[in-house]
Amino acid sequence: MKMDFKSQLLQGIPKEMPPKRLYATNVSHAPKRKDILSPTEKKLAVRNALRYFPKKWHPELAQEFANELVDYGRIYMYRFKPEYEIYARPINDYPAKTKQAACIMLMIQNNLDPAVAQHPEELITYGGNGAVFQNWAQYLLTMKYLATMTEEQTLHIYSGHPMGLFPSSKDAPRVVVTNGMMIPNYSKPNDWEKYNALGVTQYGQMTAGSYMYIGPQGIVHGTAITVMNAFRKVLKKDENPSGKIFLTSGLGGMSGAQPKAGNIAGCITVCAEVNVAAAKKRHEQGWVDELIDDLNELVIRTKKATASNEVVSLAFIGNIVDVWEKFDEERVYISLGSDQTSLHNPWAGGYYPVGLSFEEANKMMSSDPNSFKKKVQQSLRRQVAAINKHTSKGTYFFDYGNAFLLEASRAGADIMAKNNLDFKYPSYVQDILGPLCFDYGFGPFRWVCTSGNPIDLHKTDTIALKVMERIKTIAPLEIKQQMQDNITWIREAEQNKLVVGSQARILYADAEGRSKIAEAFNQAIKTGEITAPVVLGRDHHDVSGTDSPFRETSNIYDGSQFTADMAIHNVIGDSFRGATWVSIHNGGGVGWGEVINGGFGMVLDGSEDASRRLQNMLFYDVNNGISRRSWARNKEALFAIKREMARTPELKVTLPNLVEDELLNNLFE
Ligand SMILES: NC(=O)c1ccc[n+]([C@@H]2O[C@H](COP(=O)([O-])OP(=O)(O)OC[C@H]3O[C@@H](n4cnc5c(N)ncnc54)[C@H](O)[C@@H]3O)[C@@H](O)[C@H]2O)c1
After folding, report:
1. Distance separating alpha carbons of residues 69 and 75, to the nearest angstrom
2. Atom from ligand 1 closest to the CA of residue 588
3. Which of 191, 245, 346, 491 has the fewest CB atoms within 10 Å around its CB?
4. Cβ atoms 216, 500 nearer than 8 A
5. For residue range 378-400, what is the model confidence (pLDDT) as tens digits?
6. Is residue 436 helix, strand or coil?
7. What are 616-637's pLDDT values in tens digits?
8. Which of 342, 364, 431 to probe ligand 1 with, by most ligand atoms within 8 A of CB?
9. Strand, helix or coil at 440?
């Protein structure tokens, strides 16, 4: 007899070995990974994988796992993927002794939902390698631990591996997650390949390995803010974005948000995507308006859209380099340009070089990685050469946090500024998100309604809108525009149909906004207006969670952008101030070894306790980053932290004394 969902979840590793599963052909799979292990190391990888299973199964599984390692470069344990459907179920469907653990199960399942995840069979949520777990045994065990744990225990997860439940206390986080934490000297891209193949670490990206991914909506808001403000930079006062072109690439996990954001900003978005399946998926989900697979047709359609001042998003199925070059030849003027291929992962499927088909590239990256690397670098040089032609005509190009400038510079592209230290082009954080949002404390706050009921989501939208409108009336001039953009966003969020997976919403808010909205939700849960707990969280790509010199902290200029103290303080600080779970990761966004990022999840259940926790934790979670940004002398952060100290007497932050330039001019000459 078939076991029901709850019983399957509670059994963890099944009592009987499940039958071998056929390799699913109807889903997008992770590319075959590099063959990096020596024969001795391969045996160690199989030995490591077998430790999850009883000895009697080893003879059969040893060969099967060895085959997976040869065929896919990793051991995913496909056989153990459960039969039940994986998606964010209503909270009461989960067997659990505490609602907090049930909420975490819901969030994990959302990250692995085939409608949400990029490569669900390989437990990859987004970014090509952003993993929730390394293999299905880890998933099964984690769900069992969560289903049986109490509020006096904490589950410790090492890169997807559930080390176990440890006694703790009610006030402690229920789950502590680390992903990819390496001894610093072992944090080069090949180290990820090797230690991930051995089954001892994983790339958790940001919200993949921390269970906080909410589909491309999570990024649409930030992208809409970025595109809107980029247009504000290039347009004259009386102009608006309609009929102006934003050219970019990628329709994957996060990049898929770009066309929608372009529509919200009101421009023409042209977005190239080499993977037909990814382009079609975004089209079917309504995230991009039209699909075009012929370059000449793309030029005609784009010119027509410009002539008639359309607001439309066009997906080009093909390589972005071809579009940059073709638009130059055909004199198509691009107002804004960017790129959102996964260049944090350039050699393993993140970037597809021009001149190779998608299939050829997938084959070459594992069969001949050296030649593939050369192709990628050639392609980047060509792409930058074409971009430079456009920017000389007036295009505003910015790096979109995907390590484009970094990898292009490493490839020897003509991308360096005259001083040979900086890049020719800014990152979106340096020019836009840093000074306009992060330094004031605005960041990608989010929530998930665990009832799974859209009516609850609607109620939270209404509550959040009311709170934001109230705060705006007393907000200082410096942040009025940000408040207004966010009010417009939340007012239109429902009609923009952004939900894919769990009933989630994102809203850029500062410390005041986040805690007031959270408090209002908690009260509404208490009174029954909202029918089930709400999970709060945020993207790691935020004010305080992430140290990343080429992205989140690229607008820090005191040298400390290469330190990671802020992210570590944040995760420790959040953990004892009331987070339900915390996570800290190496990698994410710009690449393994290039960033440390952390996040949290917090369950609101309408209790007094939740109210106390949210006030304490959300305050620190934002102001930690503002204090660091102000110590780095960022003007906007200095304003924000002084304002916060004025209204919170217990907050005492060390402020910098600013130095006159002329005092330093003659030193060391
Ligand atoms: N903008 C942001 O706010 C933000 C935030 C976080 C991360 N990022 C970064 O953006 C990048 C993209 O993230 P994602 O989740 O969408 O990754 P993804 O891997 O899911 O999608 C990238 C897409 O680019 C396509 N692609 C690769 N090379 C191409 C080429 N030459 N031409 C056309 N298409 C090509 C791939 O087929 C893939 O579908 C990552 O590096 C990520 O870290 C951006």
Report:
1. 5
2. 43
3. 491
4. yes
5. 999 999 999 999 999 999 999 99
6. helix
7. 999 999 999 999 999 999 999 9
8. 342
9. helix
- Tokens, residue 450: 């665990």
Decide: 318 in ligand 1 pocket, CB within 6 A. Answer: no
pTM assigned to the model: 0.89
DSSP code at position 476? -
- Residue 585 zone, left/alpha/beta (φ > 0; ψ -120 to 50; rest): beta
The answer to whether residue 420 scores a pLDDT higher than 90 is: no
253 lines ligand 1 (CB under 6 A): yes
**CA neighbours within 13 Å on the CB side: how many for 305?**
28
Cβ neighbours, 10 Å, residue 27 = 13
Residue 501 CA to residue 88 CA, distance in Å, equals 7
- Mean pLDDT along residues 253-268: 91
What is the C-alpha separation between 478 and 435, in angstroms, rounded? 11
The closest-lying atom of ligand 1 relative to the alpha carbon of residue 256 is 16
Longest alpha-carbon distance in the chain:
84
Q: How many Å apart are CA 245 and CA 262, to the nearest integer?
A: 9
How many helices, marked H, and strands, marked E, lie in the chain?
A: 23, 17
Q: How far apart are CA 264 and CA 261, in angstroms?
A: 5
Answer yes or no: is the C-beta of 348 below 6 A from any ligand 1 atom.
no
Q: Is the CB of 342 under 6 A from ligand 1?
A: yes
Q: Is 203 strand, coil or helix? A: coil
Q: Which of 319, 206, 62 is nearest to 583 (CA)?
A: 206
Tokens of 86: 């994986």
Amino acid found at 128: G
Instruction: Extract the tokens encoding 169.
Output: 């206390």
